[in-house]
Hints:
Blueprint: H1 7-30, H2 37-50, E1 56-63, E2 68-75, H3 80-88, H4 103-110, E3 114-116, H5 128-134, E4 141-149, E5 152-161, H6 169-194, H7 199-245, H8 251-281, E6 290-293, H9 294-304, H10 306-312, E7 315-318, E8 324-327, H11 329-345, E9 353-358, E10 368-375, H12 407-417, E11 422-427, E12 431-440
Helix pairs in contact: 1-2, 1-6, 1-7, 2-6, 6-7, 7-8, 8-12, 9-11, 11-12
Amino acid sequence: MIRTLVPDEQRLEGTFKRLKAIEDISYLCSSLFTSDFPTVSNKVLKPFCELTGADYGLVFLLKNPEDRLYVEAVYGLPEEYIELRNNKEILTLESKNVQDTWPSIRAMIKKQIVIIKNMDQMNMSFSKSFKELIKPNKITSVAAVPVVVNDRSIGVITKYYIKSHVFDEEEISFMRTTANIITSTIERNYLLETAKRTERELIQANEILKHVNQELDEFVYIASHDLREPLRTIESFASIIQGQFQNSLNATQSDCLLRIVGATRRMRKLIEGLTNLSRASRDMKEKENEVIDLNILIAEVQFELTAVIQNASAEITLVDKLPKVIGNKEKITSVFKNLIANGIKFNKSTKPQIKIGLKDGLTSGEDKVCVFVQDNGIGIEKEYFKKIFELFQRLHNQEEYEGTGAGLAIVKKILEKYGCEIWLDSLPGKGSKFFFTLIKDQN
Length: 443
């Protein structure tokens, strides 16, 4: 028996698919080390169109010389159209037979998403070659998303619908996020390629890269924030279905539902990890130079982790009187909280022991202090010393130890923000000792 999805379930399923598509597109683009727009666009166009039921899709690109307009990728159309169209017509944005009533052209000129729900009600049109190609079909709805790099339109992704299509806010957000991911990929990889040329160019590119990375952090922060709402919707509906229909579901349906709930929770934690990582690198202006008494801060961290400490019967010991340091209190708190919590979590002892002090009881250098956080946990093999600081890198499966693998990446990001560093000594079964530097308060 085939069960028909109710509207709320359909919306839930659509949201989940878009979230998964964004994850897939992000992963795909992160593995592309090229600023070649055709390579990126060919990979992205299919999920971009398929998820929203588009009948056709096209990617246009402006290429030198003379900013000639090329078709770079197609969906739902014969691949031969690319060569036929590019060889037959030489078009630029200024060509006489190029009209700003074409949705793709208007999107590139305006640098804005162009959405047309009903072509019959708008003074818009298409190129003759495109209309000839899709005969006898006729386009009713269109969405054109420009790809803008350095405030200049370099291309556009357009999807077409034969039947009337409703573009809701969630779909528009999906289109905008996809375009941002592509743009960020192209900008990032262009900078990486530029950086290989000369030492002088490398210095200049590093400055630009720093700015782009800051923008990427902003994008991650905003995107992860925007993704929370549809994720809450999935979690909410899944909980409702669990509560109201649990007894009427068969074993397969119950298993699928449990998997959705589990995946949603893991995705929520991943998004929280991304948000925290982005926050770690963001300037908080006047709060970046606070004077922090580490002894008071440790006491506050212990209070925040009261439940974790009590449940594990853990003991926190301050070996040395700690100095005052300079930084953002919230971020430095996050460093200690992550290290202490990890020392308790990755621990098979009946009484986890966490010791905090200064390296050899001494400060490190004139402007920095070296602090350690030591535990009697499961320890780490030397070959994984670098891997544990990489984002979402886990040494254990979810069943053994919960978590996303973002904690130590956040710690490293925070410390690098202040020009500080972190390293460790560890032996499997003997525990770990993390050392890190902080900026010392000279007063």
